[in-house]
Automatic annotation (TrEMBL):
<keyword id="KW-0472">Membrane</keyword>
<keyword id="KW-0812">Transmembrane</keyword>
<comment type="similarity">
    <text>Belongs to the binding-protein-dependent transport system permease family.</text>
</comment>
<dbReference type="InterPro" id="IPR000515">
    <property type="entry name" value="MetI-like"/>
</dbReference>
<dbReference type="GO" id="GO:0055085">
    <property type="term" value="P:transmembrane transport"/>
</dbReference>
<dbReference type="Pfam" id="PF00528">
    <property type="entry name" value="BPD_transp_1"/>
</dbReference>
<dbReference type="InterPro" id="IPR035906">
    <property type="entry name" value="MetI-like_sf"/>
</dbReference>
<feature type="transmembrane region" description="Helical">
    <location>
        <begin position="9"/>
        <end position="29"/>
    </location>
</feature>
<feature type="domain" description="ABC transmembrane type-1">
    <location>
        <begin position="68"/>
        <end position="258"/>
    </location>
</feature>
<protein>
    <submittedName>
        <fullName>Carbohydrate ABC transporter membrane protein 2 (CUT1 family)</fullName>
    </submittedName>
</protein>
<feature type="transmembrane region" description="Helical">
    <location>
        <begin position="237"/>
        <end position="258"/>
    </location>
</feature>
<keyword id="KW-1133">Transmembrane helix</keyword>
<keyword id="KW-1003">Cell membrane</keyword>
<keyword id="KW-0813">Transport</keyword>
<feature type="transmembrane region" description="Helical">
    <location>
        <begin position="179"/>
        <end position="204"/>
    </location>
</feature>
<feature type="transmembrane region" description="Helical">
    <location>
        <begin position="106"/>
        <end position="127"/>
    </location>
</feature>
<feature type="transmembrane region" description="Helical">
    <location>
        <begin position="72"/>
        <end position="94"/>
    </location>
</feature>
Length: 273
């Protein structure tokens, strides 16, 4: 078996790409353990001592725990709803390729191409009528629009599966719901995990939606706490970076833990049959 030789140019490109991503992250993390004076004097140097007052001050002055619970609640409920709607829609479209379904698929494509910022005003008016402005449930309702993205990825994965599996189950007397629950869901588990990870990172890091629709301090998400720190600590960069690290830690751990499932889901969906 021939051993594949690595290209020096490719290695250099990868090192430069890693530096582009890693240096800003290093800059943020390192400066959370420095005083304001030390950060201004040598921002890229490692800290001379483990200075933890930035973290203590942030936890004392900012409702981190409440914002964390709000973010987890909104993210978890939204992901479950999106995966259920997306998988059901993909299964229904694949099960019946009628004219109505094809038209609906085209409309979903058009809706997916419309930027969310262009619909903020009409969406805000709708939430006002529903009395869901400044509520976590309103945020969840808005995030369920991400079901369209879930639908496209899950449908592509379903098309890679042999259709004979569903036909055999139908011949054996299984109904649409039984096929979906007992056959479709177990088979599409890899892509469900992959889509769930992508959508989790989107919701967790989203700023525009909660900034527009949430005003109460007790309902704000973690990202909004970072935004508030810009004004509150306009010259206190260590505190701002500390909040950024606190927001990043859960999603980084989550992404690292789920990285293998992301690759498996994408690779399995790319192989026909």
């Amino acid at each position: 078996m021939r051993k594949q030789r690595s290209s020096p140019i490719l290695s250099l490109v990868m090192i430069l790409a890693a530096a582009v991503v890693g240096v800003p992250f290093y800059y943020i993390v390192v400066n959370t353990f420095k005083t304001q004076r030390e950060t201004s004097a040598s921002p890229l140097a490692p800290p001379t001592s483990l200075y933890l007052d930035n973290y203590a001050r942030v936890f004392e002055n900012t409702p981190i725990l409440q914002s964390l619970l709000n973010t987890v609640y909104v993210t978890a409920v939204s992901i479950v709803i999106m995966l259920v709607i997306g998988s059901m829609a993909a299964y229904a479209m694949l099960l019946r390729t009628t004219l109505v379904n094809r038209v609906a698929g085209v409309l979903l494509v058009i809706a997916f191409l419309v930027p969310g910022q262009a619909t903020l005003i009409p969406v805000y008016r709708i939430l006002v009528e529903l009395q869901l402005v400044d509520s976590l449930e309103g945020l969840i309702l808005l995030y369920t629009a991400g079901s369209i993205f879930c639908y496209f990825l899950i449908q592509g994965y379903l098309r890679s599966l042999p259709i004979s599996i569903f036909e055999a189950a139908r011949i054996d007397g299984a109904g649409p719901w039984q096929i979906y629950w007992r056959i479709v869901l177990p088979l599409i588990r890899p892509i469900l995990i992959t889509v769930g990870v992508f959508q989790t990172m989107w919701i967790w890091n989203d700023f525009i939606t909660p900034n527009v629709f949430i005003s109460s301090p007790d309902k704000q998400t973690l990202v909004l706490q970072v935004y508030k720190a810009v004004g509150e600590y306009s010259v206190d960069w260590p505190a701002f970076m500390t909040l950024s690290v606190i927001v990043l830690i859960p999603v980084v751990i989550f992404f690292i833990a789920m990285q293998r499932h992301i690759v498996n889901g994408l690779l399995q969906g790319s192989v026909k049959g």
